[in-house]
Amino acid sequence: MRSIGKLVIIGVGLIGGSFALAMKRAGLVGQVVGVGRSLDNLNRAIELGVIDAASQDPAQAVAGADLVMVATPVGQMGRVFDAIAPVLPAAAIVTDAGSTKGDVAQLMRAHLPEHLAYCVPAHPIAGSDRSGAAAAQYGLFEQRRVVLTPLEATLPEAAEAVGQWWQASGARVFSMRADEHDAVFASVSHLPHLLAFAYVEMVANKTDAARCFDFAATGFKDFTRIAGSHPEMWRDISLANRDALLADLRAYQAGLAQLTQWVEAGDGAALEQMFQHAREARVQWAQRFAQGV
Amino acid sequence: MRSIGKLVIIGVGLIGGSFALAMKRAGLVGQVVGVGRSLDNLNRAIELGVIDAASQDPAQAVAGADLVMVATPVGQMGRVFDAIAPVLPAAAIVTDAGSTKGDVAQLMRAHLPEHLAYCVPAHPIAGSDRSGAAAAQYGLFEQRRVVLTPLEATLPEAAEAVGQWWQASGARVFSMRADEHDAVFASVSHLPHLLAFAYVEMVANKTDAARCFDFAATGFKDFTRIAGSHPEMWRDISLANRDALLADLRAYQAGLAQLTQWVEAGDGAALEQMFQHAREARVQWAQRFAQGV
């Protein structure tokens, strides 16, 4: 497998930091340079051995890079691509870790038009409500999925190299079109995050909120875990995957209106049938998920 | 502490079974008789040592009982109370484990009018998506909360005895009015269950459902865990706590409509502010919950 002489991680958080650790452990990287806005976070990343050197200037950092991973929120990627475009080594592969892919492809086309052959949009599926360099961990990607959505212009060998590095981190690598990716992730990830945020917000605004929180237990805990996620990141995702999300939000609202009508009418049979159907789908999914299918 | 010569558990599942195990471990019970509709489940409960004897006839079982716990779905309680009313020992305490309390109080008033002094409605908060006698476990109630909602007619010593038995199981015991209880649990438990069922149902009905489930990960797993819950139980809860639930469903739908409008308008600032506010509430709650406050 091709090794990475110099790896530049722009955005040293959970994903970028854990990828750096994975490449180090696999012995696949020479030097890791971390780039970020917060000096505190970069110093922490150096202390923890996540990166070897730090910079606050992406353009300066990418000199001599073999692989540049942009692991910032999607909303910052345009500026990052602009900054590195004039100085990227000709054959440096550029990848990302964004949760939406259609918009990242568009940003690459707009801001790295000369470099598209080496652009490999990617989405490692390893969410967590933790963030920052201190959240980086060995083994984060073991058995996790990574979806690559290569551009039409992407060189197959560039996509292959990125896929192999991710495999070396323990992940299972898939490829699909950006629009397919975005529809799937609107449904299984982005929508539930929005639903969880909206739910916690509703409870927090109740007049008996304090008593409610007092009696919230494990069901509440699991259901709302993702409402502890990074607000800026989820703002960006909400905007970036707007169309797919709106379609899902509308479908969900229609389902909820139906459910509300059943509760109002006291239609126990309809409620039980829906609960049963949903439960079966959930149980089947959980079995497959536990087996890593 | 008063001990229970004969404990009758009507509905030998997670809650009833675990309560029996807790009383046995605490040395507070002579004999445990389990009552249920399924012989398989009752036999399993005997094999596992959860109960000492089984019956399919509640009226027969309660002869000589000191404590009768009705741990069936709320929808079955009326029939159970009717069946035991004529044969209950005069000073047998009757308690339940239902997730709603206003309706249980009403059922007790309607079906056990001569016995209200010994009726102690209770809600042990130890949810799980597992059910049946095989789910019964030691220690289920350690550090969990149990809310008692005594009737006006309930004798203080009956409520106190039930509270002490729950304390002996490791639980922390609270008392409040039934309507206060029901409003709180609509918000922190019943609503999220309905939201989770509706969400899984929506995904399961998508044309790309199979691909969606393929890429669902840990966020999806936690958010949907409660959609694996017992359909009949949740049908009963939805009907039993209808008014509080409808108020919350409407508040949630209003919040979701607002959120959808922000996504549609691309209002990143409004989205981020809401996410941030919800996140802070969730983080603060999680800290308190972890400390067992």
Automatic annotation (TrEMBL), chains A, B:
Per UniProt, the keywords (alphabetical) are:
Amino-acid biosynthesis, Aromatic amino acid biosynthesis, NAD, Oxidoreductase, Tyrosine biosynthesis
Record keywords: NAD included? yes
Q: In which pathway does it act?
A: Amino-acid biosynthesis; L-tyrosine biosynthesis; (4-hydroxyphenyl)pyruvate from prephenate (NAD(+) route): step 1/1
- Give the catalysed reaction(s), semicolon-separated: prephenate + NAD(+) = 3-(4-hydroxyphenyl)pyruvate + CO2 + NADH
Q: What Pfam families would the database entry show?
A: PDH_C, PDH_N
The Prephenate/arogenate dehydrogenase domain extends over: 5-293
Swiss-Prot/TrEMBL GO biological process terms: tyrosine biosynthetic process
The record's family statement is: Belongs to the prephenate/arogenate dehydrogenase family.
Supply the name of the protein.
prephenate dehydrogenase
What is the scientific name of the source organism? Answer: Rivihabitans pingtungensis
